[in-house]
Each structure stands twice: as structure tokens, then as C-alpha cells.
Fold this sequence. Notes:
Elements: E1 3-9, H1 13-22, E2 28-35, H2 42-55, E3 62-64, H3 78-81, H4 104-114, E4 119-122, H5 127-135, H6 139-142, E5 145-149, H7 169-173, H8 175-182, E6 189-191, H9 193-196, E7 203-204, H10 205-209, H11 215-231, E8 233-234, H12 237-243, E9 251-260, E10 269-272, E11 280-287, H13 289-300
Parallel strand pairs: 1-2, 1-4, 2-3, 4-5, 5-6, 6-11
Antiparallel strand pairs: 7-8, 9-10, 9-11
The structure holds alpha-D-ribofuranose and calcium ion.
Calcium ion binds next to α1.
Amino acid sequence: MVKRIFLDMDPGIDDAAAIMMLSAFSELEIMGISTVSGNVEVEKTTANAMKIVEALELNVEVFKGASRPLAKRARHAYIVHGKDGLGDTNLELHNTKSLSNKYGPIAMIESAKENKDLWLLATGPLTNLAIATILEPDFPKMLKGLVVMGGAFNLTKYGVGNVTRFAEFNIWFDPEAAKIVSTSFDNATFIGLDVTANPKVWISKNEIDNLKETKRSSILRKIVKNYIKSYGSFVPHDPIAAYYLINPESFQIEDHCIKVKTGRFRGMTTVDNYSENCKKSRIDTDVDADSFKNAFLKSMEF
Ligand code: RIB
Ligand code: CA
């Protein structure tokens, strides 16, 4: 049974790697990719999604989404992802046929209406999801499942921030959107830094260098080159969240209500086990690292 998925992303090096991994699994069908302002401006995240779609000859439409957070001003992550959002590789985009004129939040609502068992993976700021939920209050009920790469919940020793001491980038970039999403969806699965910041899941330069030459491995080597020079390894935040769609059994989950801070502690995510009738989310506390790394590396050789 093919699992139909919709991706909401801010490509971004690890978002691009997640598209390359997901598209290698025949049991998944990507129904569309919406883009959002995050790692870099939405014009660039959109172009980057199109570059991957074109390079891998995927039959997937790209839907440009929100150009800024709901309330704050955009502050991009050029230092991590480069000015172009793909490690300053300036990959070429030859044609824009994958670009739809449909707005990202509208596209995800329509895809949920057309595909009854649709899973949505969000690996960027949650602005598009928040807008979709405001436009269509029943949107959360339309999805089979929502998986979010985001948050730092202090449920493991790695669950601390990567923008400030306590805030993870996707939540920090648009905390008002994250607040809407975390209180609107039943059982959304959050995969945050508690797991992705654990070195056991990181991909080493050797592991990438040893991949056999394919379109995917060639693109991966290019887009992570500067990242690995700066950080030593590739931290696959978004591919780990994507892996949940492939092998959810390899994840350890705890149910908690989530509190998102929007003021002085902007983007901080804490678990709240005291409020009455709050929306429970499923928060990842561990993953089988070998299982994930084998799947990721094999997909790059597809
Ligand atoms: O904190 C990591 C997350 O922020 C990843 O999704 C990365 O692409 C950035 O969007
Ligand atoms: Ca991302």
C-alpha cells in the first residue's frame, strides 16, 4: 500500500536531503512540496525544491508558501545553509515546470481533501500549517498524520536549543505558528533536537565520501561540502523526521502537551503535564541510529 505524503519545507541542505531520501522509497508517493521562508527566503527555498525535483526528474509540483513568519521578522540561517540555501553550490535550475501558481497553504488543504490518508511532513517553520489551519479549521482532522521536525524538549540531554540556549530554529523562526499548530493537531509527532542533536545519528564525511556515485550522492556531496567543513559531520535533522514516515517503529515516543514560548524565551518548547484537556503531542525521545543511517545512506545510492 503506497503511503501518500505532502512535504512542507524550507530547503535548506537537510530538507533537500530529505526529499532525495523520501523519493527513493517506492512505498511513498510525494503528492506535493510546499515551501516556506526559513533557512533562506521563500524565493530561494522554492527554487531549491525545484532544483532537486528537476535533478531527480520527480513528477512533483512545488507550491510557494509564506514569505515571512506570522508576527516576527524573518531571520534566516545563511551561516548554516549558505546564501543560496544549498551550501552555496548554486545548483542550476533549467526549467520551472514544477512550480505551481497555487499558494502553499491552499495546496496542502486541497491535497488533504483529495487524499484521504495523507501524511504531512513539516521540516521548516510552521507558518504554512498555521495559515492552512486558520483558513480551514477542519484541516487538522483531514490528515492521517502530521510529523514535524522541530523543538527542543529537554527530554534527553540533547534537547537544548540550536539558535538560543533553549530554542530550536523551526520553532524560533515562527513561534506563533508553532503555538497554533501544537494546539490544533491531535497526536502530531514532533521530532526535535532531543534526538537529531545526538551524535549517534550524524553522518560522517567518510560515510558520504564512500557512497557510490549516483545523482543523489553527487548532489549530497556538493550541498554538504561547506557544511561539513564548518561542523565536521552532516546533522540530518530533516531526514530523521522523514524516516518516521518510512519506519515509525524505530522511534521511541512519549506523549506530552507542548508549550511554545513567544515572548522573552522566544521559541522555547516545554512539555506541560499539568494543564487540563490540552492537545497531546507525540514527542520523539530516541531512534534506532543504525536503522536510520543505513536507510539514509542506501537511499543516496539509489
Ligand atoms: O533546527 C533544525 C531545523 O532548522 C532543520 O529543519 C533545518 O533545515 C532548519 O530548518
Ligand atoms: Ca528545514
